[in-house]
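Thread title: Can someone regenerate the structure for this chain?

I was given the following input by a collaborator and told the matching structure tokens would be attached. They weren't. Posting the sequence so someone can regenerate them.
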Amino acid sequence: MLYDFRSFVNPGKYAFGKGSINHLGELIDKQKNEKNNWSVFIIDNYFSGKPLMSKIPSTEDDLIIWIDTSEEPKTTFVNSYRDLILAHDSYLPATIVGIGGGTTMDYAKAVGLMVTNPGDSADFQGLDLIKNEGIYTICVPTVSGTGAEVSMTAVLSGPEKKLGIKCDYTIPNEVVFDPEILASVPTNQRFYTGMDCYIHNAESLNGTWITEMGKAFAEKSNELCKEVFLNKDMDRLVADEKMMVASIMGGNSITYAQVGVCHALSYGLAVVLKVHHGVGNCIVFNQLEKYYPNEYKEFKEMQTLHGVTIPEGITKECTETELDQMVEVSWALEHMWNNAFGPEWEKHITKDMIKDLFRKM
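Best answer:
Regenerated them for you:
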């Protein structure tokens, strides 16, 4: 196990149900005082000019930061967003509100911490390196599956590695779950993000670090994933509500367990080829029948049913240097390999085997 002992933390408050976002302003106002009386909204730029913005209770005193989610969260952007916030007002904001998918929520979580922890966010990539509690953070997921809304990790790509800022303070203070705002998610993105949830559950359940707590969360989460993605005719609102619950439970499953082969390899794709996390996991899992045979079969059934095409041939033009870089990024994630194969994981996987897998992608 990664931890000999740890008392795990979950988000302090949840709001769940249709129309929950209409109460976001009330939640924000509860955190304000005479000095700290403004907020930062970190929002996926997909929603700029969209109807959702009419539900966002921002004022002229607030700061809105639009996020380009075409690439993974970067430490350099975390630093720049932190600097924008510190320059906005002489007092710190009362809240950081992250509205979007995993990328946006990870930015909100990381930026909220960096406001109160001086330095380069790249220096905090790792476990329990944050010293000070961050700004009160509220997350509003607009797509379901990453588990970022309940995770103790804000995954960032830095100059040298892709690795999360991971500690108790990273977890949002409050989460607003409103299934109605998931209606506009495109089919492919909905599938890729849902499969992120399904895949990290599969890695938890097949891993050597699994606990009864992690198992309970992962099993129920994947039960819901299969209800949604093995049933093409389910009412969309019902399906989105189920996936919100699956995402919560999936995020908790990897808190109490760990991810494995797929996530280790997808980090390599993200760092070198800038492949987004959800689609990257699907590209990798498409080659992992050997390691997760039962889940691979279900994954292919879900893909076929929903008519989603998994990109292929993305490494075809890669140089040997690029392939070697992907291998090194993945190889360095020892905790993931340890979960997948146990403490003697190097007897089960080699750099050449990893490179061969990348060639097939």
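The longest strand covers residues 39-44.
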